[in-house]
Design a protein that fits this description.
Elements (H helix, E strand, L loop, with lengths): L11 E4 L18 H12 L8 E4 L6 H4 L5 H12 L21 H21 L4 E4 L20 H11 L5 E5 L6 H6 L6 E8 L23 E6 L5 H19 L3 E5 L17 H18 L4 E4 L10 H12 L12 H11 L18 H4 L6 H13 L8
Parallel strand pairs: 1-2, 1-3, 3-8, 4-5, 4-7, 5-6, 7-8
Helix pairs in contact: 1-9, 1-10, 4-5, 7-8, 7-12, 8-9
Length: about 400
């Protein structure tokens, strides 16, 4: 059987609109929307889209009043101008650059993705669903005044801003993309209602060159930005060790009412744009852990988003299908074979062979930091300790 015993306590709203695949910068850009289509096809092939307790919903695009919760009016106007003139180069607003080429649907597709994440936040907060997933979202680099790092509108920040608007007093944002969640951190840098936690490759070796352990929040929110930059080459055991050394204790101290998480799949060893050595199995383990933490601290209120990921056939669809399955309370056994109809769809769409199983064959084990102590000569343990020392005392925790 592909699924383990279903968890009947999980209700999932999966936000998806095929029109989100119009978020396509160019034919040669690494953010190929085929990764989204192939993820949804794999979700459907496993029967998750029609499973009891799962609702697939397409929300409307975010309007200007919603986008303005994070983005400046002059930037919104600049994106609309770019949509009308795909040859436009507007470096002030980060548009028409190598990372963020202009395309005709740059506003409409970006607003649609943002609308799904905002609606996901609303569904979870208002009780329409215990969990919500928008794997097309997670565009965490966009700034109030400019596009950055393949991201036009910052849907995670917009989802959090909407939660605050609805009355949430404590929102935890956990970002495990290989790149620092800089746009979300900036949006809530000085907001004591929001804890942002980011695990990412070290800024000395990867865009956006931010996310140092010393970045800990503004004067009104001390210790509410937590960053753990990981050495290039960190693999499953180290990545999981770092996650569990930082995230569970911070969430327990912060006591969030809802968790928003970003699950960029670009930590994977096959990703062409970064330098970590993580497997789908470890990515699945982190999704499972965040699911448990949401039930432990937030009565299950969990909004899970996608993010980066540029191994668009081998990695992204499997990683995010595991995420959807976990959120649906129907986790897929890692050794399960990928469905034949999905493999045929992969070949039809990409002329590439599809992965045969939902695992990379890793065991996703790690040595617990608190239980086994740390090695002062180990670069990873140095990074973990630096992150804990930077923020733990401000939460009443021992580093």
């Amino acid at each position: 059987m592909p699924h383990t015993q279903p968890d009947r306590s999980c209700q999932l709203s999966l936000f998806w609109d095929e029109a989100e695949t119009a978020y396509r910068f160019s034919d040669r850009h690494p953010m190929d929307p085929v990764r989204l289509s192939l993820t949804m096809r794999l979700v459907e092939s496993f029967g998750l889209a029609t499973a009891p307790g799962v609702t697939v919903t397409a929300a409307p695009p975010a309007g200007d009043s919603t986008l303005a919760l994070v983005h400046r009016p002059d930037y919104l106007a600049a994106v609309r101008r770019a949509a009308a003139d795909p040859a436009l180069v507007d470096e002030e607003h980060g548009l028409g650059t190598e990372d963020n080429p202009v395309f005709p649907e740059i506003h409409s597709a970006s607003a649609l993705i943002a609308g799904q994440s905002v609606a996901a936040a609303e569904a979870v907060w208002r009780g329409g669903a215990r969990h919500a997933v928008n794997f097309a979202g997670g565009l965490h680099h966009a700034m109030p005044e400019r596009a950055s790092g393949f991201c036009v509108y910052n849907d995670p920040a917009l989802a959090i801003a909407r939660l605050l608007e609805l009355g949430a007093e404590r929102v935890a944002y956990v970002d495990v993309d290989v790149h620092h969640g800089d746009g979300v951190q900036r949006a809530f840098w000085n907001d004591p209602r929001v804890l942002t936690v980011s695990l990412h490759e070290h800024p000395s070796t990867l865009f956006p060159q931010t996310g140092w352990a010393t970045e800990t929040g503004g004067p009104e929110a001390p210790g509410l930005a937590a960053n753990l930059p990981l050495p290039a080459g960190t693999s499953d055991a180290g990545w999981l060790r770092a996650f569990h050394a930082l995230v569970p204790e911070l969430l327990a101290a912060f006591k969030p009412q809802v968790i928003v998480s970003q699950h960029g799949a670009d930590t994977h060893l096959e990703d062409p744009l970064a330098h970590l050595l993580v497997t789908v199995d470890a990515q699945r383990e982190v999704a499972r852990s965040l699911h448990e933490l949401a039930h432990q601290h937030c009565e299950g209120r969990w909004v899970a988003l996608g993010g980066g990921g540029y191994a668009v056939v081998d990695v992204v669809p499997r990683s995010w299908t595991h995420l959807v399955a976990i959120a649906a309370g129907r986790p897929i056994e890692p050794t399960t074979e990928t469905p034949e109809d999905w493999r045929a769809e992969v070949y039809r769409r990409t002329r590439q062979g599809a992965p045969l199983r939902m695992t990379d064959g890793a065991d996703a084990g790690y040595r617990d930091f608190a239980e086994h102590g740390y090695d002062p000569a180990d670069r990873l343990d140095q990074a973990i300790l630096a992150a804990r020392r930077a923020v733990f005392p401000q939460h009443g925790l021992l580093p």
